[in-house]
Design a protein that fits this description.
The chain contains 4 helices and 14 strands. By secondary structure, it is mainly beta. Strands 3, 4, 7, 8, 11, 12 and 13 form a 7-stranded mixed beta sheet that branches. A 5-stranded antiparallel beta sheet has the order 2-1-9-10-14, with no helix packed on it. Strand 9 and strand 10 form a beta hairpin. The radius of gyration is 16 Å and the shape is globular.
Length: about 200
């Protein structure tokens, strides 16, 4: 499952590409981790949201603990009460320059980056909602990995072609769900020696 991605374009360029107005100025971008702000495109604007839906937790004595970030939504579980309302009413596109998967032995994992072979921006299928804990937040929708990535991980983000952007944002939920398929285009897979947890920023929660 995806727990790190990168966005190399500024917000104004992303808004122009997706033909939506930018919202208030934001520095969301660079390497994005769960709990950090990422830039997303709704049907009305490009705006920053926190990556991850909050999942409340309680301790052994019933005290409230800091919520978990649920940053990935499996396509086969979108009808659960946790996700369904967002799927129906609040879908978004997540601009991605590259996303990373961890490879190697525990404690020595490195980053494998996946991107478009021509350097084009990828658009991940996302859902979003407002939360009491963090304000607007989003989650990436995951599906099974395509043949090219099956040796890297068994799942991958739903990546949408430009022809499908409008339908993901505005079509009825059942029609949008039919777009949750393994990506059928080519991808660049770059294995690196960079440690998985290197330079990870602290959580903003």
């Amino acid at each position: 499952m995806c727990n790190l991605y990168r966005l190399d374009l500024p917000a104004a360029a992303v808004a122009s590409l997706f033909r939506v107005p930018p919202s208030t100025p934001t520095n969301a971008g660079g390497e994005v981790y769960p709990g950090q702000p990422g830039l997303v495109v709704t049907d009305t604007a490009a705006r920053a949201m926190v990556w991850g839906f909050p999942l409340g937790r309680r301790g052994r004595s019933g005290e409230r603990l800091k919520p978990r970030f649920i940053n990935n939504a499996r396509d086969d579980r979108l009808d659960s009460p946790f996700w369904r309302s967002s799927l129906v009413h609040r879908r978004c596109l997540v601009p991605i320059s590259a996303f990373a998967e961890a490879a190697g032995e525990p404690g020595h994992k490195t980053r494998t980056w996946i991107s478009h072979p021509a350097g084009d921006l990828l658009a991940g299928a996302g859902i979003w909602r407002e939360s009491e804990e963090w304000g607007a937040c989003f989650s990436l929708v995951m599906t099974r990995a395509n043949a090219q990535l099956s040796s890297v991980h068994d799942r991958m983000p739903v990546l949408l072609h430009p022809r499908d952007w409008h339908d993901w944002l505005r079509a009825p939920a059942d029609d949008a769900r039919r777009l949750c398929l393994p990506y059928d285009g080519d991808l660049r897979v770059e294995k690196t020696s960079q440690r998985w947890n290197s330079r990870r920023p602290p959580s903003s929660a």
